[in-house]
Amino acid sequence: MNTRLTLRAILHCPDDVFRDISIDSTASLEELHGAIARAYDLEPGQMASFYTTDDHWTQLDEIPLIAMDPQGLGAMADHPLSRILGGSGQRLIFIYDFLAMWTFMVEFVRQDPGDAGAAEVVLSYGTRPKEAPDPEFAGEGGLAYAEEEDEEEDEYGFDEEDLDGYSSDAW
Fold it and tell me: How far is residue 33 from each of residues 47, 49, 60, 139, 166, measured CA to CA in Å?
């Protein structure tokens, strides 16, 4: 009997949006790349990379779809999931389509006995936005959300709520 992994691909956005994908443990990162793109109904055929990460989701070493750096970690096809995402605490950052920058945090959920077969979504939560959220990469490669400007702030950064109780009439 074969082993299947359940991996969670969390879309990096302000809302809770994730897909749990069941995939054969002998599949490669390249196959997971395709499974995530299908699970989120993304345009197929875009370049993408996985990145190793630490416990704080700091982006570390790149694992590209096509390896071009002889000193790098190799291509996605060179990495079986059982080795890189096959246990508790293992996680990767996945960036799909370098123009749109769809960014996902991918982590191990569980391992179960099961038959070999195509990857499938076993849990879907939330709705994917029409356009990729605008992530900012906060210091040391970590992920953060782009902050939206408050349109009601004045030129000094104060909004009406900050000025409640103050009046220029007292001057």
Answer: 10, 8, 18, 26, 55
Give the residue from 41, 36, 38, 144 showing the smallest Cα distance to 94.
36
* Number of Cα atoms under 13 Å in the Cβ half of residue 158: 7
Q: Do residues 164 and 153 touch, judged by C-beta distance below 8 A?
A: no
- What pLDDT is recorded for position 142? 55
Q: What percent of the chain has pLDDT over 90?
A: 60
Q: Which of 47-56, 108-117, 134-143, 144-153 has the lowest mean pLDDT?
A: 144-153
* The model's pTM: 0.77
Alpha carbon separation from 165 to 8, 15, 83, 154 (Å, rounded): 48, 34, 60, 17
SS (H, E, C) the chain: CEEEEEEEEEECCCCCCEEEEEEECCCEHHHHHHHHHHHCCCCCCCCEEEEEECCCCCEEEEEECCCCCCCCCCCHHHCEHHHHCCCCCCEEEEEECCCCCEEEEEEEEEEEEECCCCCEEEEEECCCCCCCCCEEEECCCEEEECCCCCCCCCCCCCCHHHHCCCCHHHC
